Amino acid sequence: MSRTPKEPVKLVPVPSTNKIPERDIDKSPILECRHLGIDFGGLAAVKDFNMAIGRTEIAGLIGPNGAGKTTVFNLLTKVYQPTRGTILVDGVDTHNMNTVQVNKAGIARTFQNIRLFSNLSVEDNVKLGLHNHINYNMWSGILRLPRYWNAERLAHERAMELLSIFDMGYLAKYKAGSLPYGDQRKLEIVRALATNPSLLLLDEPAAGMNPSETAELMDNIVKIRDTFGIAILLIEHDMNLVMGICEGIAVLNFGQIIAKGTPDEIKNDPVVIEAYLGKRKEA
Which stretches of the chain score pLDDT less than 50? Predict the structure, then answer.
């Protein structure tokens, strides 16, 4: 599949040490982390993590295995409560929020290990993501009142609309667990989109995909950003994907950011090269 070459994006400073795409500079960042950190048993797993993401930015968080990338995602979604630091979502401090409240505030995610309801249909998995928008109460559901049927009709229409992003509408009645691995990955993204996020976190979305599927995924990530007008932050080990679609990239190593910048800046950064490949021995 041929792809249109990505135009270079200029990153500009926001009122902090962070940078976001120039097109987003007239709006506050959708996410800003300030001196974020967490300790496990006295060990600092993430320390002094600072990052901002523009409202329509596709950003990458990369680093060697064990660098703390998924831990950052768990902090952003309040699976873990930070030991220190601040997380602002659309300018709102999430300090007292839990995972459900953070989702309602605008953050949705996928997981490194797929977490679908395998025995439910593809459509029902997407409908579960629509829980923030269900407009009938328990009694309307039990008694099957008109409000229930109207909400179910709207949920079906929205689920099919979202599945069409990946051309998966024909799979709506299949059990989620029966889908090929790549389609399960796509379904998890669709379910996250069903929560109507402002920021979508993708944890290794290309894991287990072949090159053709990865190329299609790259196009669809850009399509999702453009269609929904949202920001996307992804963790990924496939550097072709990261360098191909990310505008700003942060590199994490041993829980700390060691470099930030555009794809060209990151791939030529000697500190990043050393973190991935190790320091060359002097002859």
Answer: 281, 283
